[in-house]
């Protein structure tokens, strides 16, 4: 039976850890405070840099304050995209005061945010050695362990941070994230409850608690929490997207579409457009669904779910040829997607049962009307080469489906081999000594040999 599409309410909702930083933005203030050179400033990075620079350049500023201002400016530089310069400033501070724990915490946080976990942990370990009674050090290292998917180690550090500072709201929220990723959703909710008791205006904590409720199947509570997040901070597109997923899960596609509209208005992303396309498809508005999938793929041509779900819409419109092409692309992009593989197999069998494969004779696996490479134009112009290309593609998809059932690694290896063949074909065509037909026949024979094993 044809799998319709990856349901919008089955897709994972966006879940972002509201990670503690020594220089991140705090909860939204009621009124904009004056700009000062201090950690956790809510001001724009450019303004923080300006104020800190004035303090650093002032001859009357004591050396200790100057070093602290340099750390704060480094954080602002990182937040403005000048990470290399930020790390250089941290290095300068450490060279002048190797025992300044805050500098190591700042270095660790910047490295964590840039994905350099080993170096981040090294810096944070040093910060803890220098100040073993500082809760921030354990909180920051817990975040690094969380990012590295070492959730038990993260929880140990969060526990220590809370022992040192029992009212540390952000640590409760971050420990909740670790519990969430471990699948301990009730424990995650308990930590989010405490975080919100201490700081009831953190939108991200409401959003994260909503995700935990969603995992427990408590849709009403999930919607209630994500609505609270939107009320506190309506600038975050994923909040609207997440509520859209919850509403779609309840069959309320009209309100879901309204939320996706808001998410897209704030920041057009392929996943938001695909989710809205799914809602339109659920309402049987296939043209609007396809338009959204098209827009999603224009933004991100490798967004695999959009291909699969657009394929389902083409099936509903009766266009099996386009459905088959979309399902094939979905399989190419993610050979381990069993839904896409099953959809491709089902539509191919349906076409064959209906005797509709004749339209594919002498047509290659790609669209000749959009072919740009000379080798593709040559294949389109030669019926024999076109049939060879289609045969290669059909056998490759069967081989991938069979391999994936045994070994994901083997399927990936076969995918790489196919890509290597196409890249070599594209690069070699037209060069002396290269026989395109022979190369394609050899590739087909190799694939057939694999298929017979």
TrEMBL record:
InterPro entries, per this entry? TPR-like_helical_dom_sf, TPR_2, TPR_rpt, Ycf3
Signal peptide limits: 1-27
TPR-type repeats, residues: 101-134, 135-168, 169-202, 203-236, 270-303, 304-337
Q: Which organism is it from?
A: Bradyrhizobium algeriense
Fetch the PROSITE patterns from UniProt: TPR, TPR_REGION
Please state what the protein is called: Tetratricopeptide (TPR) repeat protein
| UniProt entry keywords in alphabetical sequence | Repeat, Signal, TPR repeat
Does this entry carry the keyword Signal?
yes
| Domain of life of the native organism | Bacteria
Which Pfam family, just one, is annotated for this protein? TPR_2
